[in-house]
Amino acid sequence: MFDLRDLYLQVIVDHNKAPRNFGKLAHFNHEADGYNPLCGDRLHVYLDVNDDGMIEDVSFEGEGCAISVASASLMTEAVKGTPLSEFAQKFDMFQHMVTSDLDETPDEEALGKLAVLAGVREFPSRIKCASLCWHTLKSAVTDSHTIAKTE
Amino acid sequence: MFDIEKIRGDFPILNQQVYGKPLAYLDNAATTQKPQCVIDAVNHYYTCDNANVHRGVHALSERATANYEAARQRIASFFNARSEREVIFTRGTTEAINLIASSWGGAHIGAGDEVLITHMEHHSDIVPWQMLCERTGATLKVAPINERGELIMDAFEALLSERTKIVGVVHMSNALGSINPVERIIEKAHAVGAKVLVDGAQAAGHMAVDVQAMDCDFYVTSAHKMYGPTGIGVLIGRESILESMPPYQGGGDMILTVSFEKTEYNDLPYKFEAGTPHIAGVIGFGKAIEYIQGIGFDVIAKREKELLAYATAKAEAFDGLRQIGTAAHKACVLSFVLDQVHPHDLGTIVDREGVAIRAGHHCAMPVMQFFKVPATARASFSVYNTEAEVDSLFVALEKAKAIFA
Lengths: 151, 405
Description:
The complex is a heterodimer. Helix content of chain A is 38%, strand content 17%. By secondary structure, chain A is an alpha+beta fold. Chain A has a 3-stranded antiparallel sheet, covered by helices on one side. In chain A, helix 3 packs parallel to helix 6 (127-141) and helix 4 (87-99) runs antiparallel to helix 6. In chain B, the strands form 5 sheets. A 7-stranded mixed sheet of chain B has the order 4-10-9-8-7-5-6, sandwiched between helices. In chain B, strand 1 (17-18) and strand 2 form a beta hairpin. The termini of chain B are far apart.
C-alpha cells in the first residue's frame, strides 16, 4: 500500500523547511497571486524575464502546507535559467504527472526533481496543493491580473 | 448505565477500517454519523410509504403526511416550541438564516439600522447579513472575542443600541467549541428592542434547548449534526413574528388559493415551506431526535465532557501543540495547531492512521484571522467516541511530528 513516506519524501520535507527562491525579487517584470480557498493557502510569485526571453530569476512568497511550499520551491528551481517559451510545456508535463493514473510511471528524465511530487496522485484532496504554484506562475507569465486558482 | 459498546453498535459505519486501521471518526462537528434507526426510518419511508404530502387522498400520501407531521410534533416538543406552527423545515441552518435575513430582514431592516453578530460566527451567520446590509444600506456590527475565544460581553452590550434591529449569535462555535451565554445576550438585545437569531447548528445535538426558556426569536439548526440526515434543518420562530413576515419562496404547498390576480398564502408553518419538502429527511430527523431522547442529554453531555477533558489533558501535555479556543464554557471541540506542521498536512497524515479530523478554516475565516493562523486542525467528539480513539489521534500526531522533524 502507498505509504505516507511516499508523499512526504525527504526532498519535500527539506524544501518545506528551507524553501529555495523564497522572498521578493529585487527586480522582476511579472508577478501574480494564487489562492486556494479550500485550505487558505496564499502564494505570490515574482518573475524576471530578460530580453532574450530567458527566466533570469523567479521567486515566491506565501504560506501553505508542506506540499504547496515544497512544490513552489521545486518549481522555481525547475524553471530558473530556462527559456520562457518552454514554460507551457513544463506546466502541461507537471499537470499530467499529478493527475495521471497511478499505474503510469512518471517520466523522471523529463521531470527531474519534480517527479518527487508524483505521490500526490494517491491523495486526491492534495493535488491542488501541488499545482497551485504552477497555476500562479502561469498567471504571471501571461500577466493575468486575476488571482490564480487551480480550477 | 452508559454502555459504549451498545451505543457504538447503533452506528454501523463506525465498524470499519480505513487504510487497514480502525476508523476513529473525530469530525463530528462537520457532521455526525447516523444510527441504524435513522437509516431504517428513511429506508422504510422509501420502501413502504413514499408519496407526496398534504395532497393525496390515497393511503400512501396519508401515511407520508402523518409521519411527516408526527416528526414536526416531536421536533416542536424537543425544542419546547409553543406549537407546531413555529416549526418550519428548511434545507438546513444556512437556509434558515437566509430565510430570516431575506424575509424578516427585507421587511424590517433599512438604511441606518444595524445588524449585530459576533466574531466567532460561521460564514452562514455572516454572509446572509452582509448581503442584507448591502441591499438595504444597513450596517453590520461585529462584537469582539478574547484570546480564549469567548465573546466579550461588555463590548457586545456596548454595541447594542436602538439602531440594532437583529442580533445573530452562534450558540456553540464550530471552530472553537465556545458556548455563548445566549440567555443574557437575548435579554440585553430585547432590552433595546432587537430580535435575536440563535445559530444552533453545533449546539442542538449536544445540549437541551428550550426556546421558550431561552426566549429567542429564532432558533435554527441542522439535522445532520444531530444524527439525522443531511439536507434537512429547522427554523423555530416566534409565531407572532413569523405571522408578520412575508413568504420566503413562492410555490406549491405555501398557498391557499392562487389566481392570476391574487394569491392567498397558507398558514404557518406551510407559508414558509414552498414546494415538495424533503419528506424522508424530516422523518429521519424525527427519528434522530427520538434517538437522542432515548439516550438523554444528561448522559450525552457527561460523556462528551469526559472525552473533551481527556483530549484536552493530552493536548496540554503535547509538545509544540497550541490549542485554539480555550473558553471556560466549551464543549466537544479540540481545535489546534502544531509547530512546524501545517494543519492540512496533519489532516492527511492522521487520515492514513484511520483518524478522521477536519483541517481548514471551518467556514469561520474571521476566527482564523483573529488567532493569526491560516487554518487549524480540529478533532470533535460525539457520544460514541472513545478514549482509545483520542489515543489514536495523539499517536498519529506523534507520527506527523516525526515526519517533519
